[in-house]
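Q: Structure tokens for this one, please.
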Amino acid sequence: MTAHESPGDGPAGPDGGRGVPGARPAAIRLTVAALLAGLVTAALILAGRLHPPDYTASIFGRTGAAAISVKSWIATATLLLAAGQVLLALWVYGKLPGGPAPRRVALAHRVSGVVLIAISLPVAVHCLVAYGVQLTSLRVAVHSLAGCFLYGAFAAKVLLVRSRRLPGWVLPVAGGTLAAVVAVLWYTAALWYFHGYRLPAW
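A: Here is the predicted structure, written as tokens:
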């Protein structure tokens, strides 16, 4: 989740959007972003389904239960970063008390987004190599598919962040979607591990 444009960018129309003249280019950008998200997600799912699992694969030298422990703590860090991203975005958009956000808040939003994706990559690579994309149970299927969608959604968000004249709802929805996917990933793996290899209310 990288930084978004200022909510004031572009001429706003009476409905709060970016104005009628840019409606068609905005629709094209949204379509391209959706296609990009779908293509990246589909490519990762295909790679995970075709790749034979290697259960001996390690992450930072840890295998088996030790690897799950390491990944669970990294996932918890990404969840905290995602929550921070949401709060920083709300601040930038003026949805928190205390007045306008200083410029450094937007910078913190960008930096924390880069850190979130960076620390998630070793976990994603290990999951892909060690397990691939498995659909053996509801929990595993949800976790596998959500993990693939995370990077598809991230690719779309990067494209949208660099686009101008988008409707005002686009970037908040994109960022909220990424945060929600991180929460789903944490729930279906890290919480499962911390809760004794079972999920509460599942």
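A few notes: The chain is about 65% helix and 0% strand. Residues 55-194 form one domain.
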